[in-house]
Design brief:
Chain lengths: 695, 61
């Protein structure tokens, strides 16, 4: 009897794995189709199937392995939400509800933009990196930080590093996080500038969101307080009206020019907006617009997924283009290491470490929910990145390169752009460029780098296939632009506020009086400094003749991946201090990969002899010319020459700072791990269960 | 069905950082019966300020 029981159990164990084996096989077949077919167009659904099956298998096996063996999650151990329950910050939340909260917080513009830019190398490198990166690095990082913070009362990344690696390491990490915030804000604002410049329709709809949000703010403040759903629906109606009327505004001889701005004008408008919006009361502008942008974001992502499945579009981009060698027009640098920093969010994003150690660990009801929240939500974000990559790859490659190459390379009119892009090996007729612009209701689609406009064209293509046909393309294009601009502007506003507090904390390390006091001055000074910092990089990007994205996106990627490396190093240090050394490979492998990529990319950005990649080489070339009295293109005067040299040096300094931060934390990590190995007992500073505070 | 709608509403509100007022009320009754809890509007305003005041690290890229 006993033997047959055992056999039955073994059989049940076996059958439990069968569905997963089937999913794995399906995924492998799909991946093989994507990877090996050449010559004929591959259907986009193969990429989606390959990604989804990989994610499911990784979640079922790898996330579970980490939960059971590496972290040894304990469902009976009270989480901060139980121990410190206060009904406000610490609330035990249903895991599906919390998944929504966490996903809405981590998914932003990043996973939509990076993959679009990476498509210049073809869809294959990006797809493989997103799948491998998220499974082995990105999701592990989010999960690990959530775990560490969950065991320490939901403390933030900076505090966690301080607790486990010491004061100095904590201060360095805080400083690094502030610089990353500055670069992220500049890059996001730059994307908005690229999307709205010379586009009265887009500009009108985005501008209309400001008074619209304020009306919503007044509504939720006094008329019907707390009715978020109601006010969001009203706001949505307003938004749709703004898109529809935007067309008439753009065509009006009076209003059209009023809403037409040059990139430099838009840059100053955004800087002014950031400064004002971030000191307004939150209920007036930030909160109501966040409601709109969050719900629109979730809705648009879901609609995009459904649209791709219904349309099942073939991929027109090549699997691999000749630009893997590093001479691409969208961004400079070869596949290694630059692909791995161009796609940051979606594969691995350091910024998530701030979210996973923010509100989420205070809301998690049971440790057993952590894999779904930490690992699962990141897989979901990778899925968003895959959809963005698919979007960019279903466009005609000629259109893709017309939209994403700088004007310095392809000129400013359809004829020159078509000739230049055709010469790259992606044949396109000038008529198609003009027709595409006309279809989406814009004057021009040439050199609209930054990812958002390209994705908007793709979304217009997909949505109009499902709803409305070609006549609706222009509407959907502006809907997509609005949806991206909306949450980027929310991020600029919220990020400026967060940057202000980070800066106040940092300055308070030297001047203790600089924290929150009775005086308004520290807050105003810190806000002004934060806006000035990102405004500087935004202005530099906007006036950069190579288009800005070219320069700023790699710096952003390096900084974001560096923060991820930092978070994974914290994870490694904690595992050593818990005496789980033999499982530390789970964080050490992705750490090593990120360190190799960021350090090598940073090194190239500083010292590469190729002036298109290396800041210092570029500066040296321009300064040699300047001292000889020459003016090099694209500069038109000596003042512009000096500006280029100055910008190059600032960028080089910034990259050097990032390298310093990552190397310093690496040093602290090694020291911490060695110290932990010398001690027999665990030294990790988890907050013990029995310490229940009063609240 | 109503449970599903309730969950959906809860998820949507939590996505913008608004926890459940009833849970807060229950917590206050169970643990601090001596204190007057905030009313629904005060609760809403308090949570809004807590989420957007900037001390939560902002949003992701």
């Amino acid at each position: 009897m006993a033997a047959s029981d055992e056999q039955a159990i073994r059989k049940r164990v076996m059958t439990r794995h069968i569905p997963w084996i089937i999913i794995a096989i399906v995924g492998a077949v799909a991946l093989a189709v994507v990877a090996v077919s050449r010559g004929e167009a591959v259907n986009a659904l193969w990429i989606v199937v390959a990604a989804v099956s990989s994610f499911l298998v990784a979640y079922r096996y790898y996330a579970l392995y980490i939960a059971r063996h590496v972290m040894r999650l304990d469902p009976s151990r009270p989480t901060p939400a139980i121990r410190r329950a206060d009904g406000l910050d610490y609330v035990a939340t249903d895991r599906v509800v919390l998944f929504g909260h966490h996903f809405a917080a981590i998914a932003g513009a990043g996973p939509l933009v990076g993959p679009v830019l990476a498509a210049q190398m073809g869809y294959l490198p990006g797809t493989l990196w997103i799948i491998a990166g998220v499974v082995l690095a990105g999701a592990v990082q989010d999960f690990m930080v959530l775990f560490i913070s969950m065991r320490r009362d939901g403390k933030s990344l900076g505090e966690l590093i301080r607790m486990e690696m010491g004061q100095v390491a904590g201060a360095i990490a805080l400083f690094g996080a502030f610089m990353i915030m500055v670069i992220i804000l500049a890059v996001l604002a730059l994307i908005v500038v690229k999307a709205l410049a010379e586009s009265p329709w887009g500009m009108f709809t985005v501008a209309a969101t400001v008074p619209l949000a304020m009306l919503m703010g007044v509504y939720t403040r006094w008329i019907r307080p707390g009715r978020i759903g109601e006010v969001s629906l009203l706001g949505l109606v307003g938004l749709l009206a703004a898109i529809v009327y935007g067309q008439s505004v753009a065509q009006s001889p009076v209003w059209g020019p009023i809403f037409t701005f040059t990139p430099v004008q838009l840059c100053w408008i955004l800087i002014g907006y950031g400064a004002v919006a971030s000191v307004l009361p939150v209920w007036l502008l930030l909160a109501p617009r966040d409601y709109l942008s969050t719900f629109l974001k979730i809705g648009a992502i879901a609609a995009l997924a459904i649209g791709i499945v219904i349309m099942a579009p073939p991929l027109k981009m090549h699997a691999v283009t000749q630009f893997v060698n590093g001479n691409g027009p969208v961004w400079s640098g070869g596949l290694f290491p630059f692909l791995f920093i161009t796609i940051a969010c979606g594969a691995v994003s350091g910024f998530h470490a701030l979210i996973a150690s923010g509100t989420t660990p205070k809301l998690i009801a049971n440790e057993a929910h952590a894999p779904m929240i930490g690992y699962g939500a990141m897989l979901m974000e990778a899925f968003v990145a895959i959809m963005a990559l698919v979007g960019a790859s279903i466009l005609d490659p000629g259109i893709y390169f017309t939209m994403n190459s700088p004007a310095a390379v392809i000129g400013k009119d359809a004829a020159s752009a078509a000739a230049a892009v055709t010469a790259m090996g992606f044949p396109i007729a000038p008529d198609l460029i003009l027709q595409t612009a006309k279809d989406v209701g814009e004057h021009s689609i040439i050199s609209r780098a930054g990812g958002a406009p390209t994705l908007a064209v793709a979304m217009a293509e997909i949505f109009s296939h499902v709803v409305g046909g070609p006549a609706m393309k222009a509407f959907w294009y502006h809907f997509a632009i609005l949806f991206e601009a909306l949450f980027i502007l929310t991020a600029v506003d919220a990020g400026t506020r967060a940057g202000r507090f980070m800066l106040q904390d940092l300055i308070a390390l030297a001047l203790p009086g600089f924290k929150e006091g009775r005086s308004m001055a520290p807050g105003i000074i810190a806000t002004a400094l934060t806006v000035a910092a990102w405004g500087f990089f935004l202005y530099q990007g906007v006036t950069d003749p190579l288009g800005g994205v070219n320069t700023l996106w790699p710096v952003f990627g390096i900084s974001n991946q560096m923060l991820a490396a930092l978070a994974l190093m914290l994870g490694t240090a904690v595992l050593f201090r818990m005496k789980r050394d033999r499982f530390a490979w789970v964080t050490m492998i992705p750490t090593a990969w990120l360190l190799i990529c960021t350090l090598w990319a940073g090194f190239l950005k500083l010292f590469s002899a190729d002036a298109k990649v290396g800041f210092l080489t570029h500066a040296a070339r321009f300064s040699a010319a300047a001292s000889a009295g020459e003016v090099l293109a694209p500069a038109k005067s000596m003042a512009e020459m000096n500006a280029i040299i100055f910008n190059d040096r600032v960028d080089a300094g910034l990259v050097a700072i990032f390298l310093f931060v990552v190397l310093a934390i690496l040093g602290f990590t090694i020291r911490t791990c060695l110290a932990a190995r010398r001690v027999a007992a665990p030294t990790a500073r988890e907050i013990p269960v029995q310490l229940v505070p009063a609240e | 069905m109503s449970l599903f709608l309730h969950r959906l509403r809860q998820t949507a509100r939590m996505m913008v950082g608004m926890p459940d007022y009833d849970i807060y009320l229950r917590h206050m009754q169970e643990h601090h019966p001596d204190r007057t809890p905030m009313d629904r509007i005060a609760f809403f305003r308090e949570r809004q300020e807590a989420r957007y005041g900037g001390k939560n690290g902002g949003k992701c890229c």
